[in-house]
Amino acid sequence: MFRKTRGAILCPYCGRLTNAEAPECLVCGRRNPGLWGFAGPLRILFRRRRFTDVVTVVCIVAYLVSLLMDPASLFRPRGFFADFAPSNQALLALGATGSWPIREGRWWTLFTAIYLHGGLLHILFNLLWIRQLGPAVEELYGPARTAVIFTISGVLGFVVSNVVGIPLTVGASGSIFGLLGAIVAYGRRRGGAFGTMVLRQYGMWALILFVFGFFMASVNNFAHAGGFVGGLACGYVLSFAEHRSEGGLDQLLATGCLVLTVISFGLALWTAFA
């Protein structure tokens, strides 16, 4: 229904009119401009919706669901920084990660835990940073590449924290540090006065946030470090929006990240309730 395998389409690489059946774009020469019929839907997906907005909605919905799964947890005294905190049972059911879930073979928690949060202040601070950094990364790299950066850096952050033995962890802070790492990579690669300014500003933010994490309880600094390295690596590999518009490969990678995340939430719920 959504695929278009015949007729004229816009090439996902150069944006010019070409043929969906052509082995190469008639204008830019890139291979398979029709992307097996999915070129049109992919363009719509990543041009009509900001990835930052999608992340914000998913985090809020996941947080509310985690509270509704165990409403009694709202009234358990845990201290100011843990007010309105979901129970561990609810977080595990939705896909919290850590060395214990990974030992049980729950690999999908590396994706689901990015969107889960352990309290009101936790999700509030993380969403504020996502809303601050997300649009900047989308402008520098594009929404599809931002989805790849956000997902890979979050997963790598949890891989690092799981390897060192953090038993249970949730939150988007690894992905947030990944966004910072991608902007730092942009500043270093671009150079010049503007690149230097970006590097100094966002590099300082990353350093301050990382040091600040050592003075707060229950902060997963290993995930922060792993996420920053993941975002930095993605920033060096992916192209800038000003150099090359997002192409079919970028959109396919982003779609793969989103599909894996959806499948992971499905596996988490299936494991918890089936």
What does this structure look like?
With 274 residues, the chain is mostly helical. The chain folds into 2 domains: 8-43, no CATH class; 50-273, Up-down Bundle (Rhomboid-like fold). The protein has 11 helices and 2 strands, in the order ββααααααααααα. It has helices at 39-48, 51-69, 88-94, 99-103, 109-112, 120-141, 143-163, 173-190, 192-213, 221-237, 248-273, and strands spanning 8-10, 17-19. A two-stranded antiparallel ribbon has the order 1-2. Helix 8 (173-190) runs antiparallel to helix 9. It starts with 7 loop residues before the first strand and ends with a helix.
Task: Outline the secondary-structure elements.
Blueprint: E1 8-10, E2 17-19, H1 39-48, H2 51-69, H3 88-94, H4 99-103, H5 109-112, H6 120-141, H7 143-163, H8 173-190, H9 192-213, H10 221-237, H11 248-273
Antiparallel strand pairs: 1-2
Helix pairs in contact: 1-11, 2-6, 6-7, 6-8, 7-8, 7-10, 7-11, 8-9, 8-10
